[in-house]
Structures are given as C-alpha cells and as structure tokens.
Design goal:
single chain; mainly alpha; 64 residues; 3 helices
C-alpha cells in the first residue's frame, strides 16, 4: 500500500483511533504483529520538498 504525504495525517489519526478502541487484553496477545507502511519514492520526494518549503517559509516569516 502506498501512502502519499497528504494522507499521512489521516492514516495516523485512524491508526490512533483503532488502537484506542482495542481491548488491552488482545494487545498483549497480538504484541508480535506489526503494521508496515511503505512510502513510494515520489511520495518521499514530495514530503521532503514540502518540509523544506515550510522550513524556508518559517525562516522568512520569523526573520531568522
């Protein structure tokens, strides 16, 4: 499954809601299971560009 940068927030909030709704007794039984999310190369590139852009804009706005 490929997750694009604009979907990361939605995926993490959904993951957080699912974790909160689970019963704690099943958590100990399923401790060995792990979720794996892979990002495409294009999505990684876009995320880096967005982070760089926001960092530059913050520097410009703050005058640093």
């Amino acid at each position: 499954m490929t997750v694009f940068p604009f979907q990361i927030g939605e995926v993490t909030s959904l993951y957080h809601r699912v974790l909160k709704s689970r019963d704690l007794s099943t958590e100990t039984a399923a401790a060995e299971l792990k979720d794996v999310v892979s990002l495409s190369a294009e999505a990684k590139r876009q995320k880096i560009l967005e982070e760089t852009q926001s960092a530059v804009l913050n520097r410009i706005k703050n005058g640093s």
